[in-house]
Amino acid sequence: KKFSFIELCLRDRYLFLLISLLSLILIIPLFEDIVALTTLHDIFITGTFLASLYAISQKIQRLPLAAGLLLPVVAGIWLTYFVHIPYLRLVGDCCSILFFAFTIILILSSLLREYEITLDGIYGAVAVYLLMALMWAFMFDVIETLRPGSYQVTANPLHGTRVHFIYYSFVTITTVGYGDILPVSLTARAFSIVEMITGQVYLVVLIARLVGINITQSMDKKS
């Protein structure tokens, strides 16, 4: 049976999440000169949060806690356009970190219980890696909010937006290190090191597990 693209996304929850994450990374730069970058980023990040909630909604008992974490996140993103509440964005960022950590743990626990490689499982594994980078981006934003000047940008100033931290987080987790955004404070450097180690350990463990499962499947098919 053939499925349409929308049906495929609804059936494969991790694929829907992966597409929303890739859209957040790739589509925003295309419209940088057309619409306000901050507003566009908030739209896509809200979509990513909703896609994450959908990805972990197989079990109904997960939803109350996930929705409870997500509510202040969405409020922190959009209420700042209408009212000025001190530390509202900071509370939203902290809840975002908790929400992403909760989502990552649930998806990983589900993937580690699988003993067969499926396409949706691969989508989930890639989505977890991207979610880790996005979670660390919010962490860096919190550090900069609490201790301004923790990061030094060599080209353009930060302008109070998370876009730069998303870029920095992906550069850090992949250990590329272009050097255009530098962690200056000891706290920023320490968290950057933790992200590097976490990202590399995740890739090593994940690849080893996928290879092991693939070998087991091949041996079972031959027997």
Class based on secondary structure composition and strand pairing: mainly alpha
Distance between the termini: 29 Å
| Rough outline | globular
Tell me about the biggest sheet? 2 strands, antiparallel
* Mean pLDDT metric: 82
Beta-strand portion reads: under 5%
Total number of helical segments? 8
Q: How is the largest sheet built, in terms of strand order? A: 1-2
Helix content: over 70%
Describe this protein's structure.
Helices cover 70% and strands 3% of the residues. It is an all-alpha fold and 223 residues long. A two-stranded antiparallel sheet has the order 1-2. Helix 1 crosses helix 2, helix 5 runs antiparallel to helix 6 and helix 6 (119-146) crosses helix 7 (163-173). The two termini are 29 Å apart.
